[in-house]
Amino acid sequence: MEISGTSIIGFSSAPQSDTSIKAVDPSTGLEIEPSFYNAESEIVEQAATLASQAFLVYSKKSSHERASFLNEIATQIESIGAALVTRAMQETGLPEGRIKGETGRTTGQLRLFASLIEDGSWTQARIETALPDRSPLPRPDIRSMSRPLGPVVVFAASNFPLAFSTAGGDTASALASGCPVIVKAHSSHPGTAELIARAVQKAAKITGMPDGVFSLLFGGGRTVGSALVAHPAIKAVGFTGSTAGGTALMEVAAKRPEPIPVYAEMGSVNPIVLLPEAVAHNGDAIAAGLHISATMGVGQFCTNPGVVCIKKDASGDALVDHFVEKMKDTAAQVMLNPTIHRAYKDALSKMQANKSVTTLVSGSAGDNDSPCLGTAAVFEASASSFLKDESLSHEIFGPGTTLVRWENKEDLLAILESLQGQLTGTIHASGTDWENHGEILEILERKVGRIVYNSFPTGVEVCHSMVHGGPFPATSDGRSTSVGTHAISRFTRLIAYQDSPQSLLPDELKDGNPLRIVRLENGKTVEATI
Ligand code: NAP
After folding, report:
1. N or C terminus: fewer CB in 10 A for the chain?
2. Domain-located, residue 345
3. Are residues 289 and 220 in the same domain?
4. Candidates 242, 339, 475: which one to mutate for ligand 1, based on the most atoms within 8 Å of Cβ?
């Protein structure tokens, strides 16, 4: 499949514009052909208007038709084959196994959402039938369900070129619920984005979806993204990236004459609490697991463990020594792009210059001359230093870990209480550790989206029960998740139909339950019957 470098507007391609960018191979620092042309303001206008028109048709497609579309996207992505793997590896520096694994996760997500909507129970259909003889007032017939919001803008993530990008989780959940999608490609992997977008375009044509159900726009310099979020046709936003980017887009959305929801997943340090008995009995295994989790994907995961709370005692010291040895022996690896590499180096320099922090592993340049090498780093701070300096709780995006040494329970609880909202919180406990666990759990339940026991936060299962979210600033809206099928509700809203003629109701709400879905009927859950 050839890469053209022009934005995709529904079933058409945008013309080339006057400005363009090229992707950079992070392992060499060299530009990769071809050029990708920035979408001008009229292209933003065209894509948004077309998406708005497509919404009128697409939102009325049956669940079965939308599921066929999602399944076909998965098939078309698989059919790209080696060209996708080669391009994604070149643009991101990620190894073949990771790209292939992420492709499987992406197609798996699309198929999971397809199977979810094949059964319309996700719409939360509720019915209260009329009580005309009720005294003192009759009750009308009221039926409600979730309906799609309208066109959604999805910002592709730099650190997941497939699973959180063009046809990633946000795109899958928006298309599943009946919303057209416009993707703002990430300038770090535009060729990968185009290959996937062409697969989506082809699937839309094969399955008879309306022109404009999907578009992909290229563009850097913040202008395309801001213009899309500000456009009146857009009704919601999905974003994964920096705190600065996410909060800037929240502001654009909030200042519109009609404010819209922004689901932004931003930074997180994913605190890990190591309790003393677990460390005493299992210290070596915990150090080994922590090392794998901290360096996986060169630490460029939103669930990377950035802050680890370890008691200042002999077992804690032994665990730290073991972890430090492993981090020192970790080879430098290529990071995703020069910007992320620069940000990582800056963060390490700040930590090294901080007098209240001890640098245990400062990293080295590695033995090849890649300009984007990320090297593992470990810092140590006392509980009191950590509590005095808020900057120590900031995310270091890369394989850098801060160990916070606490001496008593009060310290530990104060450290956890000082943290802002997080995607995850992890507890390692054993034996008598469980006696103190209640207070820790009480704090974590207020602070995080997912609590992990005796394991590590990296590796987010895509399933019905997953919550990949958390209170601000981990995300813009802690009530939602960007992984798993709960995500389908983020691009919907409830609509009630009062005394509606049967023929005008969506099938999910009709008498006789023609779709055989789970519904709440007059306060009772009615199971689907075949
Ligand atoms: P980013 O700078 O936030 O950019 C992500 C996307 O948002 C890009 O398409 C960018 O558009 C757009 N954008 C950013 N700021 C914007 C603004 N003010 N107005 C309009 N659009 C805006 O994220 P990144 O490039 O992926 O990585 C940069 C840093 O983000 C990393 O170093 C890391 O610290 C953090 N990050 C965190 C996570 C996580 O999961 N926690 C994931 C990825 C990145 P343009 O192309 O126009 O700039």
Report:
1. C
2. yes
3. no
4. 242
Tell me if 190 CB under 6 Å of ligand 1: no
184 lines ligand 1 (CB under 6 A): yes
We report the CATH number of the domain holding residue 365 as 3.40.309.10
In-domain check, residue 409: yes
Q: Is the CB of 248 under 6 A from ligand 1?
A: yes
Instruction: Based on the fold, state whether residues 285 and 425 are members of the same structural domain.
Output: yes
Q: How far does the centroid of ligand 1 lie from the alpha carbon of residue 225, in Å?
A: 11
428 is a domain residue? yes
For ligand 1, the distance from its centroid to the CA atom of residue 241, given in whole angstroms, is: 4
302 lines ligand 1 (CB under 6 A): yes
Q: Out of 265, 380, 395, 508, which one is annotated catalytic?
A: 265
Measured over the CA atoms of residue 499, residue 501, residue 504 and residue 510, the dihedral's sign is positive
Asked if 322 and 342 sit in the same domain, the reply is yes
Tell me if 237 sits within 8 A of 229, measured CB to CB: yes
Ligand 1 atom closest to residue 188's alpha carbon, by position in its atom list: 25
Domain span at residue 151 reads 52-129+140-266+480-490
Examine the domain organization and report whether 255 and 292 are in the same domain: no
pLDDT by residue for the chain (530 residues), tens digit each? 789 999 999 999 999 999 999 999 999 999 999 999 999 999 999 999 999 999 999 999 999 999 999 999 999 999 999 999 999 999 999 999 999 999 999 999 999 999 999 989 999 999 999 999 999 999 999 999 999 999 999 999 999 999 999 999 999 999 999 999 999 999 999 999 999 999 999 999 999 999 999 999 999 889 999 999 999 999 999 999 999 999 999 999 999 999 999 999 998 999 999 999 999 999 999 999 999 999 999 999 999 999 999 999 999 999 999 999 999 999 999 999 999 999 999 999 999 999 999 999 996 655 566 789 999 999 999 999 999 999 999 999 999 999 999 999 999 999 999 999 999 999 999 999 999 789 999 999 999 999 999 999 999 999 999 999 999 999 999 999 999 999 999 999 999 999 999 999 999 999 999 999 999 999 999 987 65
428 and 281 in a common domain: yes
Which CATH number characterizes residue 207's domain?
A: 3.40.605.10
Q: Are 5 and 34 in contact (CB under 8 A)?
A: yes
Does residue 286 share a domain with residue 328?
yes
Give distance in angstroms: CA of 68 to centre of ligand 1: 32
Residue of the CA atom closest to atom 43 of ligand 1: 241
Q: Copy the structure tokens of residue 37.
A: 């042309």
Rounded CA-CA distance 350/437 in Å is 34
Distance from C-alpha of 403 to C-alpha of 306, rounded to nearest angstrom: 8
Which residue's CA lies nearest to atom 34 of ligand 1?
A: 397
Domains held by the chain: number:
2
Please indicate whether residue 242, judged by its CB atom, sits closer than 6 Å to ligand 1. yes
DSSP character at residue 391: G
> Which pair of tokens denotes residue 480?
């939602």
Phi/psi region, residue 523 (left: phi>0; alpha: psi -120 to 50; beta: rest), is left
463 is catalytic: no
Q: Is 241 in the pocket of ligand 1 (CB under 6 A)?
A: yes
Using CA atoms, how far apart are residues 59 and 176, in angstroms rounded to an integer? 10
Q: Is 390 a catalytic residue?
A: no
Distance CA 476, CA 421 (A): 10
- What is the distance in A from the centroid of ligand 1 to the CA of 255? 20
Report CA(329)–ligand 1 centroid distance (Å). Answer: 31
d(CA 190, CA 492): 29
